[in-house]
Amino acid sequence: MNIEKIILTEITNKKSLRVADIVKITGFSRAYINRFFKKLAEEGKIILIGKASKSSYIKATKESIRRKKNNILEIKMTLMNQNLSEDLILEQIKRESGIFLDIPNNISKIVDYAFTEMLNNAIEHSQSNNIEILIERDEDKIRFDVIDKGIGIFKNIIQKRKLKNNLEAIQELTKGKQTTAPKLHSGEGIFFTSKLGDTLIIQSSNNKLLYNNIVEDVFVYNIKKVIGTRVTFIVSLNSRKKIDSIFREYSSNLYDFTKTEVNVKLYKMAAEYISRSQAKRLTSGLEKFKKIVLDFDKVETVGQGFADEVFRVWQNKYPTIKIEIKNANKNIDFMIARVKGNR
Fold first, then answer.
1. Is the overall model pTM greater than 0.70, yes or no?
2. Which domains does the chain have, with CATH numbers?
3. Could you tell me which residues come within 8 angstroms of residue 75 by beta carbon, excluding any fewer than 6 positions away?
């Protein structure tokens, strides 16, 4: 019995074929039949499309591969976090699905960047044994999730930056250029990813950080505790954003990421912004930027020590950096003007 001939005949007639189909026809074991499928695949005559229970073999022609891929618009994977390479995972997704088929070039570049950056963050920083990924496409958007069960992004920042709570960690994160491993990364990944899509959601511990580019704002929510970190990215297939334009907008002429207009949200905590130590934590790392926007929305007042440290001591140390004040009330304006008068 010529098993290879049977496989090729059946795959031509049925368009797609599973190992179980040939097992049923021949009566041989699955392990035995699988050897023939593997041999034909290695010879480039057939190709496996899809994952796990949804996978099947098709004849290896451009037309058949494309037709089969068009029906596979969702990929789920659980990866062991050992020697992972985010670019190879992305190549595998493109090879095994139709998620990237015929999408606009600007969207392809955006998803390439965002997916590899967020997966790399999980690989390098999460300390998780396994990483789950889900990427899917529907009629109007592409979405992906990267999920780990590790230390959690906010806790990691708290430990590395010696902060007090999640909200302080979120402030560090929304500065745009922070990283918990400065020798490995420049910290640009989350910042640029937050600018490229329609939505970027980061959930960890008891907080959810939402970058909503539809309304051009950032939100923080209390949520049921999440172990590790879950990152969700969504971009419309009709988005006109271009990755090169975003890079240029938030970079100097040398493209060294030395300018940003991202707001530093002074989220209202249990205590007001009173002390110099709070100010020092707030300004840590901001010397890397040319322009800083401090958003005092929902902050009722600031203390003399806090204002003096930011607007006199720190500003005198970095006189070329512009600090822009946003949403400050009269009390805050008064305190800032007072310390500036002592410069």
1. no
2. 3-69 (1.10.10.10), 75-252 (3.30.565.10), 261-343 (no CATH)
3. 51, 93, 96, 97, 99, 133, 134, 135, 136
